[in-house]
Structures are given as C-alpha cells and as structure tokens.
Amino acid sequence: MTRVHRLAAIGMSVAAALTLSGCGTTDVDTAGGDVAPPTSEACTQDTTTTSTGPVSITDGVGRQVELDEPAERIAVLEWQQIEDALTLCVTPVAVSDAEGYGTYVSAETIPDGVTDVGTRGEPDLDALYATNPDLIVIEAFTPDDELIAQLESRGVPVLATLGANGADPIGNMKSVFTMIAEATGRTERAQQVLDDFDTHLADAKAQVADVQLPTTDFLFFDGWIEGGNVTIRPYGKGALFTALGEQLGLTSAWTDEIDAAYGSGGVDPAYGLAQTDIEGLTAVGNANLFYSNDGEADGYVSELEKSPIWTSLPAVQQGRAHAFPPGVWGAGGPISCEQAVDAYVAAITAG
C-alpha cells in the first residue's frame, strides 16, 4: 500500500538577505550521537554554498517564521519534506515513520543515526524534543492546525509547508522544496536541483513526443487491501502524478463525474485522489493504466492480478498496463518526480 498523507487521511515564501558562506553537506549531531550525512552521489559531490544570515519566511499556511540564522538541526514530520531535506544535503536530526519512509520512498535514503519519533500525525514529543531541533518542518493546510500549536508550545519554531495544491501540484512540490531550502540556507542547492528537474522533464517530453499510443487517455492509481478487499485509489485531476503524465502529453481519464458515479464522493480537491474498487477501473474504458507496485507478495497488486475484472480491461489485454518500480512515492519531491517521469517514459516508449 502507498501511504496516504496525514492530512489527506483525515481530510511563496520570502527570504531575507542572506550572506553566503560555507559549502557542501550539512552534518549535525543528535543528542544520541553522530548523524551520518546524506550518502547520495549528488551530495558527496555537492559544492553549493550554504547561507548564514537571518531568515524570514512566510510559510505555506501564511505564518511568518523568523530565524536568527538558517536551521541546522531540523526535525521533519512528513515524507516529502524528509526527501527534500536529504536532496538539499541536510540531515534531519529526527523524522517521522522512518520505517514507512524506507518502504515507500526510494528517492533518498535516511542516514544512520537519525531519530525516529513515531507516526506523522502523532509524533512522540519527548523523543522529538530530545534531539534538540532548531526547526520543526511539518505539512498543514491551515494556520490553526492543532499540530502547529502543539509543537510550538515548547518554543521551537515550526515551518508549515502546504500539504497539497490541486490547482498546481508541480508548483506546490517546487514551493515546498524551495521553502525548506530557504529555512536551511540551501537555496543555491535548491535552484540547481529544480533546474535539473526542469531539464529532466523537458528531455522526457522530447523522448515521447513522436510516440503514437492507441489513446492518450491514462490513469495512475495505487491501492491497498482493506477488509480482505482491494481498494483502489485513482489519481485524478490535481494529483501530482497526474500532472506529470499530462506534462508528457497524456490526458487524465479520471473525472469528478466518473468518480461520483461510483459512489466514492468525488476527487479530493487538494490531493486529487479518489477511492473505488477494482470494478471502478472499468470507468476509464480504453485508457492506459499506470500503477504503484507495492512490491509485496501478498499486497494489493498480487490480488489485483487475480481479478477477472482486471484481466478483462483493454489496457491489460493489450499490454498497456504498467507497474511503476517499487518505491516511487506518489507525493514526493523533485527526485521522486524524476523517478515517476522516467517510469512513464519507459512505459510509453516500450512499444
């Protein structure tokens, strides 16, 4: 199962003038010992500078966050933001649900020594504050989110990044990444990564430009098993992976009207996610299908493949149903998005 966001499950920033100094990977010590720096090749070769001056940020929910200097000891309570910090070559002192992250997110690896503070929605506050963070990064939708008040009660600044934006999912992905970079003095590194992402996407568009598919209609979905039944989560308009597919010339086949017809209450306006069952996939007709591979022998994919409804779908019968590699996180940062783009291109050009 691909895990849902904390806020989905229950329902730009302004930088101060910064003085540039230092460069490379940010490494910190936790209260319990050394935390290894990010080990990706990009970070071991990173030569971008880290800012040192005061930081003033309007966060994702409109709150003003003021720091005397860029944060070095950050605690990060959501998976995209964990990935983002590591892509910026910043090692968090604490994260939420490291085991789940390691299962579903392959874009960046959490280094040894980082403290796991429990679930994303209900972190262990004692464990969290024992790491002595100078900034806590979460995601939220409103400034009165109860988690913000709970975390701020102990006097540590909280940076709330916007959980999702169905009107511009790719733009929000970039905004969240940029905001964390500003808070940690890593704006130069962030610009490099985002430039690389834009180039990666442009190259992918060129690779698929001349491919003639039977239809450009498509659906990306993931799923899980609940009560012994397969639950399907289609990614509709406003979902990040839908937007990436559209950038490659595909046309979303999951609409509010189709979703409502199957009684699931419509596509979520922020995340662009819906919910249905295997039979609900028949609503997209001849569309190309892409889906998250949970990589589990007893997971939803193995059960899906046993279904006669699934095997009767046109895309399945014609070899146009493609599993993404395991660990491509559907709500991640620039590196996860590059992984998704690569998976789309591989499927589209497979012939």
UniProtKB/TrEMBL annotation:
Its main location: other. Residues 34-54 are annotated as: Disordered. CDD domains: FhuD. GO terms for cellular component: outer membrane-bounded periplasmic space. SUPFAM superfamilies: Helical backbone' metal receptor (SSF53807). It comes from Pseudoclavibacter chungangensis. Residues 1-22 form the signal peptide. Residues 39-54 have a biased composition (Low complexity). Belongs to the bacterial solute-binding protein 8 family. Keywords: Signal, Transport. It comes from the Bacteria. GO terms for biological process: iron coordination entity transport. InterPro entries: ABC_transptr_periplasmic_BD, Bact_iron-sidero_bind. This is Iron-siderophore ABC transporter substrate-binding protein. It is found in: Cell envelope. The keyword Kinase does not apply. Residues 73-351 form the Fe/B12 periplasmic-binding domain.
